[in-house]
């Protein structure tokens, strides 16, 4: 069973969201996703200032096995990216919940209600 912190929200596309102050959403990929992908070798992050809609493709992670698109779980503006991952994408494999990918200033925090709890996400990955 993958590690699933209860305080996070989860998207069906295997991204996690941590709500920060001032409607800021910190986003990464789940432990389940990084396990399925294998060793990451490349991360393409969204551009700062880009306005994303929920469920919009915005980033890419590549592993020794495959490449996978990442989707924004919420709508808003990209206000930070974790540039350390460009040179060290393996940080996501080391700890998927510390190695965040990008932060979005959310247009509507109510969108978090559309995401899953840890228990609901666990059900989707067990099926």
Describe it:
- The structure is a single chain.
- This protein is an alpha+beta fold and 127 residues long.
- 20% of the residues lie in helices and 34% in strands.
- The protein has 4 helices and 9 strands, in the order βββαβββββααβα.
- The protein has a single domain (9-108), classed as OB fold (Dihydrolipoamide Acetyltransferase, E2P) (Beta Barrel), CATH 2.40.50.
- The protein has helices at residues 31-37, 84-87, 90-94, 118-126; strands at 9-10, 15-19, 24-29, 40-44, 51-52, 57-63, 67-71, 76-81, 102-106.
- The strands form 2 sheets. Strands 1-2-3-9-8-5 form a 6-stranded antiparallel β-sheet.
Question: Any descriptors?
Answer:
127 residues, alpha+beta, OB fold (Dihydrolipoamide Acetyltransferase, E2P), six-stranded antiparallel β-sheet, three-stranded antiparallel β-sheet, globular
Topology of helices and strands:
Elements (H helix, E strand, L loop, with lengths): L8 E2 L4 E5 L4 E6 L1 H7 L2 E5 L6 E2 L4 E7 L3 E5 L4 E6 L2 H4 L2 H5 L7 E5 L11 H9 L1
Antiparallel strand pairs: 1-2, 2-3, 3-9, 4-6, 5-8, 6-7, 8-9
């Amino acid at each position: 069973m993958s590690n699933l912190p209860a305080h996070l929200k989860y998207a069906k596309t295997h991204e996690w969201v941590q709500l920060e102050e001032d409607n800021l959403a910190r986003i990464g990929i789940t432990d389940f996703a990084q396990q399925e992908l294998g060793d990451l070798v490349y991360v393409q992050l969204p551009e700062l200032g880009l306005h994303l809609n929920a469920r919009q493709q915005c980033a890419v992670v590549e592993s020794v096995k495959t490449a996978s698109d990442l989707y924004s779980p919420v709508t808003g503006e990209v206000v930070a990216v974790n540039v350390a991952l460009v040179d060290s994408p393996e940080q996501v494999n080391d700890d998927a919940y510390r190695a965040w990918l990008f932060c979005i200033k959310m247009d509507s925090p109510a969108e978090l209600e559309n995401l899953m709890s840890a228990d609901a996400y666990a059900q989707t990955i067990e099926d």
